[in-house]
Amino acid sequence: MAAETVVQDNDTQVSDDQWGGGKAPFKASYGKLMMWYFLLSDAFTFAGFLIAYGALRFSSPTWPVPDFVFSTAPFGVHDAPLIFVTIMSFLLIISSVTMVRAVQEGHRENRQGVVFWMLLTVIGGFGFLGCQAWEWNNLIGTEHMSLTTNPFGSYTVDGVYLNPDGSVSDETFEAGESYLIHKGSLGHHELEGYDEGAGDHDAHDLSPGDHAGYFVDDRGYVHRKYQVTSEGELNGQIFQEEFGPRAFGGLFFFITGFHGFHVFSGVVFLLIILINSASGLYAARKNGYEMVEKIGLYWHFVDLVWVFVFLVFYLL
């Protein structure tokens, strides 16, 4: 058969050598295609986790309010809702921008430009991980949240607090308002009237049991007592703050930890590719620093996933 045989169909002519294989589909290399396959499968994994979070959240009668849970920041900053996580998100978004610049410099075969912008990307990744480490330390060490214990809750009814002597306080609350069950010192979420009832002692010095305006359980958690109101009047029913939905802590640490693992892995790969770029390994290949472009796809994916994690945990 002649090598130049032509197949004609509906006025379209295709030469035999175009069917011989070995051509990159969509003008993408094998490595890029495999990266896209990986990112697609990883996207389904994150989607499953976030859908599970939504299903558990909307099946619960109450859920912690993000503005209350995430209201602290380093250096003693309190009552600043979402300020710290906004800084975290800004670092990750900026690192995605620097990654774009690294890819652009790679296409230009500019080794110094690639190294410079990738270095900034690594710094942004480490900054995000450092912020996440502080946030976890604060929630676990200060607020005592764990995989199985969620001290953050919200009221389902309107009511008023009780003072430590059992009398009715002037402080009222509405259904949906947040609270934090304390353990140890009260920290920045100080209970009104607590010091008057406990003197100079903190929760560690209180024995479990009923202390009029608050209740201390066997684990040292301080629950505040309150009286429910009905149509603006006290109805005589007295309750105490209960732990929030147990699933909140587990979901938060698992999903943000899974994303943090992706960021950490990305930083490690960025460092490896940064070293290779600086050594001139990719410059010798003359392929537009394709490896930098592939790790850039991964890094942008990590950034995009954080947008959805930020949405469901911190904004909704």
Helix/strand order, N-terminal first:
EEHHHHEEEEEHEEEEHHH
| Unreliable sequence segments | 1-12, 195-204
Overall, the morphology is elongated
The largest sheet is: 7 strands, antiparallel
What does the average pLDDT come to? 82
Radius of gyration: 28 Å
**How many domains in all?**
2
Strand content: 15-25%
Question: Could you please say which CATH topology of the largest domain applies here?
Answer: Four Helix Bundle (Hemerythrin (Met), subunit A)
Query: What is the number of E strands?
Result: 11
Helix content: 40-55%
CATH architecture of the largest domain: Up-down Bundle
CATH class of the largest domain: Mainly Alpha
State the distance separating the first and last CA atoms. Answer: 67 Å
How many distinct helices? 8
Can you describe what's shown?
With 316 residues, this protein is α+β, with helices and mostly antiparallel strands. It folds into two domains: 36-147 and 247-315, Four Helix Bundle (Hemerythrin (Met), subunit A) (Up-down Bundle), CATH 1.20.120; 152-240, no CATH class. It is 50% helix and 16% strand. The chain contains eight helices and eleven strands. Strands 4, 5, 7, 8, 9, 10 and 11 form a seven-stranded antiparallel sheet that branches. Strand 4 (159-162) and strand 5 (168-173) form a beta hairpin. It is elongated, with a radius of gyration of 28 Å. The model is unreliable at 1-12 and 195-204 (pLDDT under 50).
